[in-house]
Amino acid sequence: MDVKSPLVVVLGTGGTIAGTGAGPDDVAYQAAQLSVGQLLQAVPGLSGVALEARQVAQVDSKDMDWSVWQALARQVQAALAREDVGAVVITHGTDTLEETAYLLHRLLDVDKPVVLTAAMRAATSAQADGPRNLGDAVRVAERAARQGQSGVVVVMAGVIWPGCAVRKAHSWHIDAFDGGGCEPLGRVADDGVVLDAMPWVPPGGAGWSWLDRAPPPRVEILTSHAGADGRVVEALLAQDAKAGDPVKGLVVACTGHGTIHQGLTRALEKAEQRGIQVWRSSRVARGGVQCREGDRWPAAGSLTPAQARVALMLDLLGVPPAHLAG
Ligand code: ASP
To answer: Looking at ligand 1, which atom is closest to the CA of residue 60?
Structure first.
């Protein structure tokens, strides 16, 4: 082994990449069954890379929550603080990968790479894509560490995406992710060779402690659609009068370039009068909502509604604003 090879810490959180089914042809499976150590054993050709594996969580990422993010952030911070560690790789589910990647992008505050990866097929499937994705992610991480590159990226199906912009764009294709209009940062060829195309996006640099400073502010996502009359907002406000965990922010998945049904608009105005922050994102797959003069409510740029929710939570916590992708 090359003694100069930087140590890569691989953190497991669950997901389909760690999922198992009854057999290779079974479509049904249970996510988050195999340990990150088992996942690494299934990846050929990594004997030249110094690796350390740690299990942070074992969840189906549809169930991702703040406490798992806190645990993950602590482990990423601890690993990257070590001088012998060059990079961190995270195995994750695909469902909320774009949220975790965006969160980590905003918080990462050291000049080291963080590479997330996932899989669209369970580990027991005849089409399992996890071993290739994990192998690619480790190679990208190791190379980035050697080159002194920093930032958060996602490696899926041989493509490197910026963590601030990546999103799940197909619900079952193996090649399920894209950059929402951002070009890939690079690719990994079938033989494992990493091909760079563009410089990585510099991380937000806010620091990890933000996640532990206060309870997460409650932010909900609403969709504007035909017949949206705002009753869901009224219900939230009525519930808030009784509950101890009031809504602090609302992200609207708007029609088109940030438009909202008039019925929903009236209810949102009431919510705003009660001190609730309203942000606009788009339910349309490309383009997002860019800021324009005279905007009634802030626009979330190219972030997906789910990423915009993370951004608004960070904003409400006091995290300094970052450049919004796109
Ligand atoms: N439900 C799974 C998860 O997000 C889906 C996947 O990983 O593809 O954990």
So the answer is: 9
